[in-house]
Amino acid sequence: MSTAANLNYMDGGTAAQLRGDPITGDRYTSTDFMQREWDHMWTRIWHLGGRLAEMPEPGDYTMHDFRHESVIMIRQEDGSVRAFYNTCRHRGTRLVWNESGSGNGFTCPYHGWQWGMDGVLQYAQDPDDFEKGCPVGELSLSELRCETWGGFAWWNMDPDAPALLDYLDPIPTLFAHRGMGDMIRVFWRTFHVDTNWKFASDNFNESYHLPSVHPQLRANIDEDYANTVFEMYPNGHNRMIEMGQPSMRADVPNAVESPWDMMLEKWDLDPKDFEGRARDGRIAMQKQMRKLAKEKGYLHLDGFTDTELTDPHHHTLFPNVTMTAGHEGVFVFRTEPHLTDPNKCTFDCFWLVNKVHGQDTIMTLVGERPFEECEHEHIDYGSGVDIPDMAGSFLIQDLSVAVGQQRGLASQGYTDAHLTGQESRVRRFHEVLNDYLEGRR
Ligand code: FES
Ligand SMILES: [Fe+2]
User: Fold this and answer.
1) How far is residue 119's CA from residue 381's CA, in Å, rounded to a whole number?
2) If you measure from the C-alpha of residue 210 to the centroid of ligand 2, how many angstroms do you get, rounded to a whole number?
3) Which pLDDT tens digit goes with each residue over 144-153?
4) Do both 312 and 375 map to the same domain?
5) What is the value of pTM for the model shown?
6) Does 205 share its domain with 344?
7) How much is the pLDDT for 17?
8) Backbone CA torsion sign across 304, 173, 20, 27
């Protein structure tokens, strides 16, 4: 398969571009390393924050806790979104505990100071009791950089950071035709997991684990590395494109298995016609999707290439976001460190979809969901717990191996990863992280 010709990517995303920095266990378990990540990386990168659909009107806000920091993103009268630290400048009290809300600004629960939606102080009790003059109209909440892309507000603590679109390059170019801003978040679960946040960057930068961890995916994803496109981009983001067809591995028969049969049927193809040649279904499906998309209510596929119609396009955005795009929408994962413990993290899973006209619901990991912005659910996964409506799903499979890996990474018996070529983006991720920690970025 060929790669996009006009992109600035590093040739094929192979080990040839790597220094070979070791991936040592302390990176996952040490509080010193966690602090270095904070000092040199988290305080400088763009953070994926609130969904713009949650704050359509002036005064609507979302709040995002990240370790000991908390950030409020709030829609302004002019339609822009600004971000402020969630801390009163009188004596530091946290202003907001709600994850989202609406109003003319924020009233501090301690002494009642009122901050406008533009962050400027509007009211302070006893205005004549300030030695140097009343701060009303003068003092503002501390502001952070805030820019928007993909239907999200993103924030950055570094005033000298590059613009968001430059930082994300080339992801916005790759997603330009997907209409992410118009998508609906129909599923949002946050898993609290006993593993370091980097499990996700590692795990989602390779498909080597698919046959062993997700054997069910062989029916509709060709995870064979020989047929997969791997790319690494200069800013530290990566892409992996797998063919949407039954696996080409030698031990996988060219037979129609579920859910491949349902996917063929969805596009009015008869699974019986593909017995013994299931992989031909991919090309047939692309043709059918071109022909039937509008009739079946998929009005957003005009700008898609043939491979984008059928093949999962999987992107890892440095450092902690992944976006896996298909013809129905985009899975977004965001993984964040725990407040104090490097052995814990939160793993957010969003399923963003385009409306399918004539259809009231869409199938998700937990069954049918309406085309509506969903409620946020929290799951305390710890080191493993039954989640009945997600039993057997690929996400739970990933989490279950992640907690076991965290235990093993803490052992003296582990010294460095011993990677296959197709896992080059795993080491690449750690090298970009080291670039931040060691002053090269
Ligand atoms: S700390 Fe906020 S008004 Fe005093
Ligand atoms: Fe996985």
Assistant:
1) 37
2) 6
3) 999 999 999 9
4) yes
5) 0.96
6) yes
7) 79
8) negative
